[in-house]
Amino acid sequence: MPALSPTMEMGNIGAWSKKVGDKIEPGDVLVQIETDKAQMDFEYQDYGYLAKILVEEGSKDVPIEKEPQVEVEVETEQPTQQTESAQTIAQSVTKTDRIFASPVARMLSKEHNIPLETIKGTGPKGRILKEDVNRFLTTRQEQKPQVTEEKAAPQKKAAPAQTPTPAQTPVQAAYTDIPNSNMRKVIAKRLTEAKTTTPHYYLTSNVNFDAILKLRADLNASANGKFKLTVNDLIVKAAACALRAVPAVNSSWNDEYIRQYHHADIAIATSTPTGLITPIVTSVDTKGLETISSEIKSLAARAKENKLMPHEYQGGSFAISNLGMYHITSFSAIINPPHSAILAVGTVEPKLVPDSTSEKGFSVINSLTFTLSADHRVVDGATGAQFLSALKSYIENPMSMLL
């Protein structure tokens, strides 16, 4: 199993695009592999014929190898010899004493202390499958001698009649065990490492959101249906401008140096049916709102369909997590390494504020709460405060970020 992403430790085997005996050339798609983040086509980079498939379609949690090789035997084509037919090469594979079994079958046989050589495999080339192990267990259970219940001795006195009881209600299971996907395992591992090894601190700021809501309404009205900006699109742009103003936050930690990025590559936390993923909008500081909005929509759609390419969700220099649509007032997010900060966005709420120009002495504004989680190794408290101050300025004076 090849490592198709830096965080990948195991993968699932999807559909094989080639069958035993097929000729393979560089660039041919050999098999689909489900990584911790997406499902990808694995392309073979040599000439030859597929001689044997060692890991069957649908196999789960196949560990990666240090060298990027799929578990498949390929009979290499010799350029100086006449090419044999696919059928001849498929039949010429040398037989060994190795017992072929799926990972699940091996696990079950080990769990029940069953030697693999005692099980007859029904898979390709006699491969032992999970069903073969279960069939063996069932047969063994049926062959066990039945214990005959001893006949009770006759009673001298009949026992008193018992009052019949109503039929018992079937007992409902108390819980359901849901297997962890590769993505969920990686999320758990990475966030645990981030929370335990990165010295987080948190800063919170409330901003007046009236001006940016008005700008969004005006821009959408002038677009005549060509595009429709979201609140999040404007927040992403404002964050990029703030990163440009306070570049120390647009950085990552290394034991020997701090890497400061020249552009704001912002990862947008996106919920999918299989877990959280962070597709990246690159160079947000150089792009207009229409482009930013289009790219966010495209990345989010493909993330939910599990179709992102590795370069679209790996890396980045900063992250934003927005839960405002769920009416969350405020929250603190966990930093996603190698980023040094993540911005948590709450919901827009009405708020009373003092207003000397009003007859009532107060007015109602639309308020929003930002919470910055920062890595104290990279971003000092004062630097984090400067970033939130710059962000507040762009949000409350949004025309300045369009200049």
TrEMBL record:
<comment type="similarity">
    <text>Belongs to the 2-oxoacid dehydrogenase family.</text>
</comment>
<feature type="domain" description="Peripheral subunit-binding (PSBD)">
    <location>
        <begin position="100"/>
        <end position="137"/>
    </location>
</feature>
<feature type="compositionally biased region" description="Low complexity">
    <location>
        <begin position="155"/>
        <end position="171"/>
    </location>
</feature>
<dbReference type="InterPro" id="IPR023213">
    <property type="entry name" value="CAT-like_dom_sf"/>
</dbReference>
<feature type="region of interest" description="Disordered">
    <location>
        <begin position="138"/>
        <end position="171"/>
    </location>
</feature>
<dbReference type="InterPro" id="IPR001078">
    <property type="entry name" value="2-oxoacid_DH_actylTfrase"/>
</dbReference>
<dbReference type="InterPro" id="IPR000089">
    <property type="entry name" value="Biotin_lipoyl"/>
</dbReference>
<dbReference type="Pfam" id="PF02817">
    <property type="entry name" value="E3_binding"/>
</dbReference>
<dbReference type="GO" id="GO:0004742">
    <property type="term" value="F:dihydrolipoyllysine-residue acetyltransferase activity"/>
</dbReference>
<dbReference type="InterPro" id="IPR045257">
    <property type="entry name" value="E2/Pdx1"/>
</dbReference>
<feature type="domain" description="Lipoyl-binding">
    <location>
        <begin position="1"/>
        <end position="73"/>
    </location>
</feature>
<dbReference type="InterPro" id="IPR003016">
    <property type="entry name" value="2-oxoA_DH_lipoyl-BS"/>
</dbReference>
<protein>
    <recommendedName>
        <fullName>Dihydrolipoamide acetyltransferase component of pyruvate dehydrogenase complex</fullName>
        <ecNumber>2.3.1.-</ecNumber>
    </recommendedName>
</protein>
<dbReference type="Pfam" id="PF00198">
    <property type="entry name" value="2-oxoacid_dh"/>
</dbReference>
<keyword id="KW-0670">Pyruvate</keyword>
<keyword id="KW-0808">Transferase</keyword>
<dbReference type="InterPro" id="IPR036625">
    <property type="entry name" value="E3-bd_dom_sf"/>
</dbReference>
<dbReference type="GO" id="GO:0006086">
    <property type="term" value="P:pyruvate decarboxylation to acetyl-CoA"/>
</dbReference>
<dbReference type="InterPro" id="IPR011053">
    <property type="entry name" value="Single_hybrid_motif"/>
</dbReference>
<dbReference type="GO" id="GO:0045254">
    <property type="term" value="C:pyruvate dehydrogenase complex"/>
</dbReference>
<keyword id="KW-0012">Acyltransferase</keyword>
<dbReference type="Pfam" id="PF00364">
    <property type="entry name" value="Biotin_lipoyl"/>
</dbReference>
<feature type="compositionally biased region" description="Basic and acidic residues">
    <location>
        <begin position="141"/>
        <end position="153"/>
    </location>
</feature>
<keyword id="KW-0450">Lipoyl</keyword>
<dbReference type="InterPro" id="IPR004167">
    <property type="entry name" value="PSBD"/>
</dbReference>
<keyword id="KW-0809">Transit peptide</keyword>
